[in-house]
Amino acid sequence: MKILITGVSGFVGGYLTEELSSSSEKIEIYGTYLSEGELANLGEQRSAVKLFKCNICEPEEVEKVIKEIQPEQIYHLAGIASPADKDKEKVLTVNIDGTVNVLRACQELAKPVRILLASTGYVYGSADDQQPFTEESKLDAIGIYAESKLEMEKQALDFLADDLEIVISRAFNHIGPKQTPDFVASAFAKQIAEIEAGINSPVIYVGNLEATRDFLDVIDVVKAYRLMMEKANSGEIYNVASGQAIKIAEILDKLLTLSTKKISIEQDKDRLRPSDLAYSVGNYGRIQKELGWQPTIPFNQTLQNVLDYWRQEIGNRPEN
Asked: 115-132 b/e with 16+ CB inside 10 Å = b?
């Protein structure tokens, strides 16, 4: 079986490659990437992937790659994943038009293809009643990132056909080693590691600590993706979530307890996002009942892994 992972060099790509490589089935894994610098994210998994440089915003490039590979399955991870990106036109082009380019290229194959699209739990907006979102919850995308993913979902489902099966994951915040410090847990952990290494003074600069989110380990997420690809009915949408409500302040507190230094906290106005959602937590009941998935990795263990990753990264810097 030929499997294509778009955006394989992103945060999730290496973990998904490792998960798929553990299969007893004979598979060939292909991946697209945009930047050479991101390929380091694949680590030891790089040798397991046949790589193609491809900008998903260029339909001709996408068509050429997909036509050459002739995949039976596509995990479409390529896209802008950060709500902090302020380039509205870029976010819309990559997340919507890029996805449409992939789907159209699959149509041209005139053969069965099954596609998993990585959407986000942010399409639900913020829960005023502070209850976890189910797949039937009202959609209220706030901010250009969430809006782009919701529109991606809508346009993608128009492509459903006998030869083109589509399943959609609404994953909530997934974290783990190798995630960039553009995301909160990684940002805190990196600052702590730099303080422990004597690079920075013992102060962490923070944004909104009151927001409540749903965090789960990226390894659990890729296991959910694989199950969805294998078992989900075409056209189905599943939340991939922990179901646990965790304030950003709790993440910081937990990481500080793991630190070897006494660290103070200061708020940084530049880190406060006007589109911050007060409460975003998912219910994973459907995917548990229908596909047998549930999160397995304790949150504290994930945070320890993230901090240890940054300790190693900072320790390996030439100046250290």
From this structure: bbbbbbbbbbbbbeeeeb
Residues 189 and 95 in one domain: no
Nearest to 43 by CA among 317, 314, 313, 318: 313
**Structural domain span for residue 107:** 2-174+216-240
Among 98, 81, 100, which residue's Cα sits nearest to residue 144? 81
Question: What CATH number should be reported for the domain holding residue 125?
Answer: 3.40.50.720
- Count Cβ atoms below 10 Å from residue 203 Cβ, excluding itself: 12
Question: How much is the average pLDDT of 165-194?
Answer: 95
- Report the C-alpha gap between 83 and 285 in whole angstroms: 26
Question: Would the pLDDT of 85 be above 70?
Answer: no
Q: pLDDT for 89-112, tens place per residue? A: 999 999 999 999 999 999 999 899
- Spatial distance between the Cα atoms of 254 and 145, rounded to a whole number of angstroms: 28
- Do 111 and 248 sit in the same domain of this protein? no
> How many helices (H) and strands (E) are present in the chain, helices listed first?
10, 14
Same domain membership, residue 145 and residue 18 = yes
Q: Is the same domain home to 109 and 182? A: no
- pLDDT of 272: 64
Q: What is the pLDDT of residues 35-48, one digit of tens each?
A: 888 898 888 889 99
- Output the CA angle 37-223-149, nearest 5 degrees: 65
Residue at 34 is within a domain: yes
CA distance 217 to 238: 17
